[in-house]
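Table S2 (continued). Query chain:
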Amino acid sequence: MVLIRTCIVILGLGMWLGGCMRSRPPTPTAPAPALVTFGPLPGPRVPAAETPPSTSAAQDCAGQACIRWWQDNYKAHLASASPKFTWVQEVFIRVREVTGLSFGMPSGRRPELYITEDPAVSIPALALQDGSIVLSTRALEICREVPELQKDRLAFVLAHELAHLLTSDFRHLRLFAALHAGTPGILPAEAWQLEYDADARAILTLSLSGFRPHAIVDADRNVNFFREWVQALDPQAGHGRPLPSHPTPEDRAREVLKRLRQVSNHVDVFQLGVQSYQAGASRRALEAFTQFNGVYPSREAAYNVAVSHHQLALLTYHHWQQKRPLPFHLLVSLDPETLASREGGLTHPADDFREHLDQALRFYALALDRDPTYTPAVLSLAGAYLLQGAVFQRTGPAHKAIGLLQELSQGQQSWRVLNTLGVAWWYAEPQRPEHARALLVQALDLARQTGDPLASAPVLDNLGELARQTGRPDEAAAYGQAARQVLGGDKSPAAPCRHRGRACETLGQMHVGMLPRSVPPTLPPPQYVRSVQLPASRFTVAEYDAGVQRVTDSQQGDIVYLATLEKFTGASARGIRLGDSSAKVLDIYKHPTRIVPLPQGMSLVYEDARIAFQVRAAQVVSWLLF
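Corresponding output:
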């Protein structure tokens, strides 16, 4: 067993640790939400990683509906295969992961991005019915016309197309084909509503993935990307007739601004939930996610409410019984040694445990009602069943978990699925440990194939725990040593900060616990200040030109979170900078207290130092002080 407990959790709508989800006037940073003339057609499905090929997509694919047609006729190629489109692929992955489509579509395949550099292609972006998206270099040229906003605008284009895939609504494709054949299949008004709906979902997706919607439309600065897009595609168009399949640029901008005003404050609420969850403040996270779910009742929102209840169930059980109910690492796990003290006020922990577990099961089921294929909810619901069975010493819940996981594993053989399935079989049939072990060994092989060394840590730890419980101490020690090596070797964690209010870590001359009036006068005032209202508390979010975000408890008056934004150029107290490798973080900060996987990477959380590094593609992209 790894001596430093590593907590594995996942949020349905992950984002930058440090508040990159912001709605404000454009500056040279992140990406955005909304759309314009992005016509789509039906196409092919590209196998997801770790997913066996499926023939159904190929059988349904014909002509322009098939990616092979675009490859044969317009030399479309994977964006990931060309170094010059690395930045395009990175934007696509960020947006795709927030939608949840990185786990795959019902077919078991996940969307992939293709680029066509053929100047004869007049359609800038196409969402193909099988899950592929084709993007023309003309679309990239238009996005690049304002260099500091190119990622925001590209992200919007991609988010809009992914919105069509997410809802599986392809009536706009039928209209597109019918228009070219001269026989419209659906009324323009119906097509316009489809585009408005896709724009609306794109706004939320982009905001939650750290891109700024004001790069698309901003009434104060006369920004209208829709108008720029149409004019760039057809300089003679001016304010003439739009395509029958799409509303006018002015109509779309009006709709986006309307939704933008609704989204802006709620995105701050969601972000506060994510920051609180990573900081171990599960009750505050639950409050924020519950409020967000009331406004945007999506599968992801319900999932995050469920995860918060699940974490609180684990915390209250530890407070009740003074032990971990599940010594294995699943998507939602616990580091009770450091977190139990963070959640006080438990006068009836047994009752609280049952209530939180019941609510977790309820909201996981609600997320799956909204999307039965949503992989994180399936995995975490299975984990909640295992918790229920372990605490009440019943095998029935473990068999429920197995049923869910076996159905899921038919579509995707991922290491996370097999890791959870191995643990489930141990609880269902402890007399057959070899079955559980075989599944965990297979999960370890798949985790190593991902190229992310940290992916194997929880599986190694689970193999060690299984060996320990089945009386094989030497094997348990070997797996424990391997897990420690993944997390930086046999090194002691760095010394903790001595004083909560006088933290070792600072950002922009500020530290957590400081009162805003004590901020040094040499620090310029914040550029943007917003209020975030929760049912029982209120916070103020301030962003500084130096690339620092400050979150203050408006009632207590002190700073509760500090976070880096993308343009931050400084370093942590121990020399970590944005862009440094995760290996460097592990070398300097040693073993993380817990690892929080997000759809956009993971957070390496250090309780003693009160810092959490968000890592994507093995690089630090942000950090949070708490």
